Amino acid sequence: MNAIVDRNNVKVIGQGEKTIVFAHGFGCDQSMWRYITPAFQEKYQLVLFDYVGSGNSDLSAYQSEKYKSLQGYVQDVLDVVESMGLKDIIFIGHSISSMIGMLASIERPDYFDKLIMIGPSSCYLNDTNGYHGGFEQSDIKELLDMMEMNFAGWASYLAPIAMNQPENPTLSKDLERSFISGNPTIAREFAEVTFLSDHRGDLAKVTVPTLIMQCSEDSIVPIEAGEYLHSHLKNSTFLLMEAKGHYPHISHPEETIRCIQEYLERNRKG
């Protein structure tokens, strides 16, 4: 157990028989949940971790070969759950972690009670068949090239667009700092895996009840991508938030907490 705890910088807080696992998105780490966790730690055991290559994880455990698809990150989630002997968890994933958690739940549905997806997308690329993911192939290439040529410039360009809180520039600055704190090579590889992934074909395999929390005016995930998920995930609930941007757990923690609590209250077992 300790090897995984150290590798993924696992932290456990709170008390309660039921466990919530929080999984951060690309370019971030577990500190992104700091405005959310206080609302849940009295009723739940909370498990926070960093994916290998992110935050304070053990960077020496990162292997390009392992993490060149989302499967490497799925393994991180399963390793954390297994090493702690967890079952029946509530998995809250932001952005690409929504898909990572979903894939983990397909592999081991017995580990998962519910999936809560914040700003999820099963495919970021527009498709000729009419699917609207929000990005053209050329957009992603430009983004990846920018990361390679000018990592700091990429971070300062993307952070305010993704955060979409012009009235509170501190939030964008915090996100920029998070982006730039990562290893540039690993960050670029994670970006490539994220933005070029397509898991629309896996949606039919999901059996775990799912909440899709879609942000309004999200420059990373258009509403159509969230609606697509909802129409292809059986037993899913779609919620359009008032929060703008791609990081409601940072910019609008009160609304984010309320949405999660109301869903869990409505869908309590027993």
Automatic annotation (TrEMBL):
Can you give the residue ranges of the AB hydrolase-1 domain? 19-253
Q: Which Pfam families match?
A: Abhydrolase_1
Looking up Gene3D superfamilies in the UniProt record yields:
alpha/beta hydrolase
List, alphabetically, the PANTHER family matched. Answer: ESTERASE-RELATED
What's this protein's family per the entry?
Belongs to the AB hydrolase superfamily.
Name used for this protein in its record: Sigma factor sigB regulation protein rsbQ
